[in-house]
Design brief:
Blueprint: E1 3-7, H1 10-22, E2 27-31, E3 44-48, H2 56-72, E4 77-81, H3 94-105, E5 110-113, E6 121-124, E7 127-130, E8 133-134, H4 153-160, E9 173-177, H5 179-182, H6 186-198, E10 201-206, H7 211-220, E11 226-229, E12 258-263, H8 268-279, E13 283-286, H9 297-314, E14 320-323, H10 328-338, H11 340-360, E15 363-369, H12 371-380, E16 385-393, E17 396-401, E18 410-415, H13 424-427
Parallel strand pairs: 1-3, 1-4, 2-3, 4-11, 5-10, 5-11, 9-10, 12-14, 12-15, 13-14, 15-18
Antiparallel strand pairs: 2-16, 6-7, 7-8, 16-17, 17-18
Bound molecules: adenosine-5'-diphosphate.
């Protein structure tokens, strides 16, 4: 292993892994910190945590455990992957985790940049833009858990850094590598790092508005023990390890069987994808949250598995879709009846069990739509590791997973709600793996 990555959420981990594969690295994503010492054959390992919105001390403890595992496994550089909208609160968790990792690694200087121009996230003069608007004017200002009301990332990060550091140590300061430097050359960026360090800056937000900026930045961070970024910076790191883009990085072990989609995402993009799949004559089974009753879960799971098996027996190549995806009015109606949290977690459990039943009936290529839904399905299938393969759409690759439920393993694509083109569900199965 060359590069060790710690991601603060599940689909973000896959997004990062996808970018590393496209830049030529062979990548494995683990669900949490592996509890065995078995060596992983990969250039980079991404440990997927769920630490974005936990109390800071929990995020720090999990991230340190991941860091120690990655160092032990041979990583020479650590990549702390955060959200491309820098999701956090004044308590953290980006600042506290970054400081703990710096202490752990004896790292005196690092950078932080969520820039991901391919996805419309750019940083200029330290300010984060989402598409054409400042972060603080984007939908992120209303996020239920991490409302982002300040687009100035130097200020946002500084507010999260410890005001009372260890005895004898000065509080860490945040600074900025401006675009006139990131737009110039890797040498200019490294020279700027030196100046900032001499001025007492420990963590620099780095401007980047296009991929060329990220490539220069990637080259400049070659000797840093630790970097913090969204998934964008990943395009510039494999070259530091002598790795060039290659199709071989995305090759996956073979998996052969039926095709299925489980969708619990109610995002706009997923609604359109489900609608399109149904309109084009795809076999679809709707799960209605208003008709769910705990006692009948087993019957429902059985009925869905029967239905899928019958569909596959007449058309073995065609994917089946099982979905609870619904437009906002229907979601509101279900939530009004049983509560938002309760409805969500009931559906996640049922969809996880359905995924398991479909795999038991021979599904070996499974698309899951929805971040939380993906977590539930991966857990139900007992998956601990994913090898990352070919990209279907930006941020969504096919993966290979070993699971006792699927003999030699299976192919899985985990789609975060708003990702993917409108024909994602049909196209996914045409992408060679
Ligand atoms: P996304 O990535 O689009 O946010 P998630 O899977 O993370 O998707 O979240 C969707 C949430 O909505 C899940 O908790 C899921 O169980 C819940 N959900 C799915 N279908 C419905 C529905 N018809 N009514 C209410 N909640 C639903």
């Amino acid at each position: 292993m060359k590069l060790g990555c710690i991601a603060d959420d599940f689909t973000g981990a896959t997004d990062l892994a996808n970018n590393l594969v496209r830049a030529g690295m062979r990548v494995v994503q683990t669900i949490g910190v592996p509890d065995d010492a078995a060596a992983i054959d990969a250039d980079a390992v991404v440990v997927a945590l769920k630490s974005r919105t936990t109390p800071p001390e929990v995020a720090v403890a999990q991230s340190l455990a991941a860091c120690r595992y990655l160092k032990f496994s041979g990583a020479t550089q650590i990549y702390f992957k955060v959200c491309s909208t820098f999701d956090s609160t004044p308590r953290g968790n980006i600042g506290p985790v970054l400081e703990a990792l710096m202490d752990e690694l004896g790292c005196r200087f690092t950078i932080a940049t969520p820039a991901f121009p391919d996805n419309g996230r750019t940083v200029f003069k330290g300010h984060l833009f989402v598409g054409d608007v400042l972060l603080s004017e984007s939908g992120m200002r209303h996020h239920p858990l991490t409302p982002m009301t300040d687009a100035n990332l130097v200020r946002v990060l500084q507010a999260q850094l410890a005001t009372k550091p260890a005895p004898g140590a000065a509080p860490r300061r945040a600074g900025l590598v401006e675009h006139r430097t990131t737009g110039a050359s890797a040498e200019a960026i490294r020279a700027r790092f030196d100046v900032l360090q001499a001025e007492g800056v420990a963590i620099a937000i780095a401007d980047a508005v296009d991929n060329a900026d990220l490539l220069r930045l990637g080259a400049a961070v070659k000797d840093l023990l630790l970097v913090c970024a969204g998934s964008g910076l990943a395009i510039g790191l494999p070259a530091n390890f002598g790795i060039a883009p290659s199709d071989r990085a995305a090759s996956l072990p073979y998996a052969h069987g039926f095709c299925a989609i489980v969708s619990g995402s109610c995002s706009e993009a997923t609604n359109a994808q489900v609608e399109r799949f149904r309109a084009s004559g795809g076999a679809a089974y709707r799960i209605d949250p208003l008709k769910l009753a705990e006692a009948q879960d087993a019957k429902l799971v059985d009925a869905v598995a029967h239905w899928a098996a019958a569909e596959w027996s007449t058309a073995p190549q065609r994917p089946v879709l099982v979905y609870s995806t619904a437009p906002p009015s229907a979601v509101a109606a279900a939530q009004a009846k049983a509560g938002a949290h309760e409805t969500g977690s009931r559906l996640e459990t049922v969809l996880g069990r359905i995924a398991e039943a479909l795999v038991a009936r021979g599904a070996r290529r499974l698309v899951v739509a929805g971040g939380e839904t993906s977590g539930a399905c991966v857990q139900a299938l007992g998956i601990r590791r994913l090898r990352i393969g070919t990209q279907i759409d930006p941020g969504v690759p096919w993966c290979h997973a070993e699971t006792g439920r699927a003999g030699d393993g299976m192919h899985l694509a985990l789609k975060s709600g708003n990702f993917g083109g409108v024909d994602f569900f049909e196209r996914a199965f045409r992408v060679a793996t």
